[in-house]
Amino acid sequence: MKHTSNLPWLSTMRETIVSYRCMIDATIEQLTDEELFARPAPTTNSVAIILRHLGGNLRSRWTDFLTTDGEKPDRNRDTEFLDWDGDRQSLIVHFDSGWGALATAIESLDDDNLGHRIQIRGESHTIPQAITRSVAHITYHVGQIAIVARLVHKGEWQWLTVAPGNSSQFNEQTWGTAGSRSIFSKDDNAG
To answer: Across-strand partners of 119?
Structure first.
């Protein structure tokens, strides 16, 4: 039986994760500190709260992921949904620690260890299942971040996707290239 490498899939997951980080960064760069911490409604999370939660989740899931359960005993998920009491910089440091755990974990994977099983809340997952679960979770929250940011932001907005009315122009510039997948593509052949 011929062994097929998982490396193309893993490379695609790495690219996908990077593109979502670019969307998060491009969103929060447009927000003032006041907007970053603003709740559009009393029972709606701020962008800061969502970043706090993602940072906590990713740190827990991907720190020592091959040897410990992805729900670490020191994680307090409920506090992740409270207002952040620090400043922007301390929030970004917190978020980056979780994102860094994910990035380090993904970079450590190869065909030799990708077949290992890991635990998340006591449930066994293949590593591809766990990565897919994390990417789906990130995707869900990136959408929330974008919507909440648009609701609280005052002034012009720099679109994170193809701006309304620009689909034809975007397609003309990127058709047949990797640039057609995202405005954050690093495709040198685009437009």
So the answer is: 124
Closest to 131 measured CA to CA, from 13, 3, 9: 13
Burial class (CB in 10 A: 0-12, 13-18, 19+), 175: exposed
DSSP state of 68: S
Bridge partners, 27 (sequence order):
none
Distances (CA, A) of 33 to 30, 49, 126, 158: 10, 13, 39, 17
- pTM attached to this predicted model: 0.89
Q: Token pair of 134, please? A: 């994390």
Q: Look at the block and give the residue holding tokens 């609701």.
A: 151
How many of the other CB atoms lie within 10 Å of CB of 125?
18
Q: What are the φ and ψ backbone dihedral angles of 124, each rounded to 5 degrees?
A: -75, 135
Q: Is the pLDDT of residue 191 over 60?
A: no
Q: Which of 177, 156, 136 is nearest to 54 (CA)?
A: 136
Task: Find out whether 153 and 31 touch, Cβ atoms under 8 Å.
Answer: yes
Res. 157: pLDDT tops 80 = yes
Radius of gyration of the chain, Cα coordinates, nearest whole angstrom: 18
Model confidence at 65: pLDDT above 50: yes
